[in-house]
Amino acid sequence: MGLKLLNTLTRSVQDFVPLDPSGKNVGLYCCGPTVYDYAHIGNWRTFVFGDLVRRSLEFHGYNVRHVMNITDVDDKIIRRVKETGGTLSDFTGKFEKAFLEDLAALQCRTPHHTPRATEHIPAIVDLISRLVQRGFAYQAPDGSVYFSIQKYRGAGCCYGQLVHLNFEEMRTGERVANDEYAKESLADFALWKARVPEDGAVFWPSPWGEGRPGWHIECSAMSMQLLGPSFDLHLGGEDLMFPHHEDEIAQSEGTGLQPEGQRFVKYWMHGAHLLVEGRKMSKSLGNFFTLRDLIAKGFSGREIRYLLLTAHYRETFNFTLEGLQGARSSLQRIDECIGKLREIAAGETAGADDALVRQLSKPLEDDLNISGTWGAVFEWIRETNRKLAENSILPAQAASLLASWEKIDGVLGVGLPSAAVVPAEILALVEARQAARKAKDFKQSDGLRDELKAKGWVIEDTPKGARAKRIA
RNA sequence: GGCGGGGUAGCCAAGUGGUAAGGCGGGGCUCUGCAAAAGCCUUAUGCGUCGGUUCGAUUCCGACCCUCGCCUCCA
Fold it and tell me: What pTM was computed for the model?
């Protein structure tokens, strides 16, 4: 069975069929960060979701080309650069670096390309020029260039495919008024923003005068440059459906570069937002966390990743600190079982158990039902523990189970627990305690146990002897 | 006002027209000198409320209540 995904374009779960006639290569574009600050846990949910999509595609044997943009110029960035007094690249470089570090901490596979908007100004200008030539864009009296929804629609193109908006009934609130430049129509959006004094040193030359790219254009320019005018998948948070992705479709398909009958993007996917402690994240509620905040509280990227991956990507997820504690316990349960299998396998290798791999991965095929896969994983863990308890697993079987888990973990990405290396000093204390126990000097042995605990190691007395385990 | 998600045990969360996965937490047990660790077992006659369809509904239909998101900063 193949992968099925919910396509926002059709609002239905569809079989995933790549555009590539050979059925092998897949182009994947994930809307990346705007680097004006550290990404928060809500942002991370979406990026981890993107990683799950990529890993799922790779699990199914596709050769994925994964692109994630770095938006390093926008209103917020310009404002903050001005406040800090540094240069644009110094400012954005810091947050871009942090972003990539955090992405790695969450055990996300690194995208093959992470293009920066500021390094693609020529491609952006070319794209806008083409839209102007084709009559879909115009320069307004304020010098900015806008995309005309009306002209686009007039040419028989459809605007409003991802969300069903009734433009006649749209509320024209403050935000609209604030964004009013000199557009011909309210729905038009900026492709090129004319330079204003507040921009400081942030501007580039263009056929329409000095200025900078609008919000959506960099994604169109960079995705089409790296993946072609028509590619397979485009992902983002649900809030990006409108206007960001809707506008991307318009300006990308407005170029007319797509092959006959092909869309800019075949499958659009959107990840739901999260709540933190049951409430919408906000700084004033004190439930606004960056990844760094959570790591400072003692949680690992791996634990955070696990928690973010416990719920289906299209459901609002309630992220809590209590949940993170639970994630730690759940992961330990997996680690214990894998650790025991490793001891039994003792370096032996074997092929994966295909039936088991299929059983665990099957739910994921249905629009990434990861909860179903976790359910299957834990059922398998329990069954394995039962066999482990009765000593009925042979080394070759253990090796095969490990190989199977490795395959599944290729999608889940929670990693295999690293083989524990117990320092000699700790080992000596464990042995001393064993000797004391043998001599029935329990006062001494309990003292040694306390000493080990103080050093961060807990003794695990098993029928096969004592063993030290680091306290998480 | 328009559009779109949700309401399943103490918490998190799947799922199905035929009688509720899984995780955390709790409880019990095994092991142990005692513990700890680990493991096993257990934990919803019930799926927002009220009606309807049906042999049968948590699942389909209708109404209502509550909640969240988007409607030009947004993951």
Answer: 0.94
Nucleotide closest in space to A235 (CA vs C1')? B75
Instruction: Tell me the ipTM for this assembly.
Output: 0.95
Does residue A142 approach strand B to less than 7 Å at its CB?
no
**Nucleic strand B near CB of residue A75 (< 7 Å):** yes
Helix, strand, or coil here: A275?
A: strand
- Tell me, in Å, how far CA of A330 is from C1' of B26? 16
| pLDDT tens, N- to C-terminus, chain A (472 residues) | 699 999 999 889 999 999 999 999 999 999 999 999 999 999 999 999 999 999 999 999 999 999 999 999 999 999 999 999 899 999 999 999 999 999 999 999 999 999 999 999 999 999 999 999 999 999 999 899 999 999 999 998 888 889 877 665 554 443 444 444 568 887 899 999 999 999 999 999 999 999 999 989 999 999 999 999 999 999 999 999 989 999 999 999 999 999 999 999 999 999 999 999 888 887 777 788 999 999 999 999 999 999 999 999 999 999 999 999 999 999 999 999 999 999 999 989 999 999 999 999 999 999 999 999 999 999 999 999 999 999 999 999 999 999 999 999 999 999 876 666 788 999 999 999 999 998 999 999 999 999 998 888 999 898 878 888 887 6
In this complex, the answer to whether residue A148 has its CB under 7 A from any atom of chain B, a nucleic strand, is no
**CA atoms of A8 and A18, how far apart (whole Å):** 16
Give distance CA A404 / C1' B15 (Å): 25
Nearest to A142 by CA among A185, A198, A180: A180
CA at A260, C1' at B54: how many angstroms apart?
49
First to last CA, chain A: 39
Long-range contact pairs involving A9-12 (C-beta distance under 8 Å, separation at least 24): A9/A161, A9/A162, A9/A263, A9/A265, A9/A267, A9/A268
Name the residue with tokens 């995208």: A111
Cβ of residue A12 lies below 7 Å from strand B: no
